[in-house]
Design a protein that fits this description.
Layout lengths: L23 H15 L12 E5 L2 E4 L5 E3 L8 H19 L2
Antiparallel strand pairs: 1-2, 2-3
């Protein structure tokens, strides 16, 4: 059973496949990217944690089958969040004006 198996990596995680190549710092950066691109995200439409990356920038929900465009390695980028909040703020200002 799994309880008798040894822990495979102490700190390298998903980047263990690269062995001692490419340097520790680059592997650490790559680890962050690979973990985010392979994780599942919450669907904005159905609320389930089943959004996975199909290809670069394309994210599909396995449950409701909706497809959205997002970041290359994560569902939404920092700049996309900024743009969304700016648009919401401008829309609010426009609605308040007579």
């Amino acid at each position: 059973s799994n309880s008798t198996m040894g822990k495979r990596t102490r700190k390298v995680g998903i980047t263990g496949k690269y062995g001692t190549r490419y340097g520790a710092t680059l592997r650490k950066l790559l680890r962050k990217v690979e973990v985010s691109q392979h994780s599942t995200y919450r669907c904005a439409f159905c609320g389930k944690d089943s959004v996975k990356r199909t290809v670069v920038g394309i994210w599909s929900c396995g449950s409701c089958k909706k497809t959205v465009a997002g970041g290359a390695y994560s569902l939404s980028t920092a700049s996309a969040v900024t743009v969304r909040s700016t648009i919401a703020r401008l829309r609010k200002i426009q609605n308040e004006a007579p």
